[in-house]
Amino acid sequence: MKRKPKLGQNFLVDDRARHAIADALGDVSQRTVIEIGPGRGAITEILAPRAGRLIALELDRELAPALAQRFSGQSKVEIVEIDVLRADLSTLVPPGGTADVIGNLPYYITSDILLKLFTAGSAGLLSRAVVMMQREVADRVSASPGVRDYGLLSATAQMNARVDHLFTLPPSAFSPPPEVYSTVLRLHFAPRFAELGVDATGFDAFLKQSFAQKRKTLENNLRAAGYSSSKLAVSWPTVIPRQARAESLGLEPMAELYRALTSQAEAPSSCTAQ
Ligand SMILES: C[S@@+](CC[C@H](N)C(=O)[O-])C[C@H]1O[C@@H](n2cnc3c(N)ncnc32)[C@H](O)[C@@H]1O
To answer: Residues that bind S-adenosyl-L-methionine, according to the entry (predicted)?
Structure first.
């Protein structure tokens, strides 16, 4: 049986691909770039001479000191041994400015990393990210409403960023080769909460409730979350068919329903499910 590498360590060995990933971030000469999971430095070594400042976050206790040693002569490069999910990104961003992110992500925590990036993007800390992930996850992030892959991750991503699908790599681009294809996405952080007239925390929670069970209609998911039938009936916008599933709806009608539900005094927690 093939042994799975620990910490999602499939290192990029395709030279064209690592240059294409670094190039996708554009001109970073005046930018702070945060690299997630630099590993053996495949992308780090391309960005080190280009970036205004490069901060690479690596969890592996052997790889991090080896990289720190290798880049010790380059004052613009900092290698930090840390779990990216525990890192406080706000401390890495220049005061009053934003940073960019790059990374061939460790696939076992891709969704958690993306959520962390969206939160930081909404807080105005990040501008762009070029990130590689398992193809199936990238397809979900960039899916449009109504297609099979569209779900909570797509809605959350598209509330927070414009998503460009860049290119896909086969397992042979990595060593050891993973069992899956990998896709590179570019995210331009541009939160839509204000434009759609919703508050970020409340709407994020509403999306989770709306997509809670794929086989249920949106109305049934919201009833299960505690909204009463009467409240749903008076708030339901005419643009949304009563039998619709959240997976078929764009963010505009979802925001319209959320605004209608929250503009009335009754809160979901005080509703009786009927
Ligand atoms: C897919 S490899 C990419 C390595 C390198 N950037 C490349 O392209 O060859 C993922 C990297 O993320 C690191 N990693 C895994 N979990 C991490 C975490 N929680 N925080 C930071 N780095 C992590 C792994 O040690 C590994 O170096």
So the answer is: 10, 12, 37, 58, 83, 104
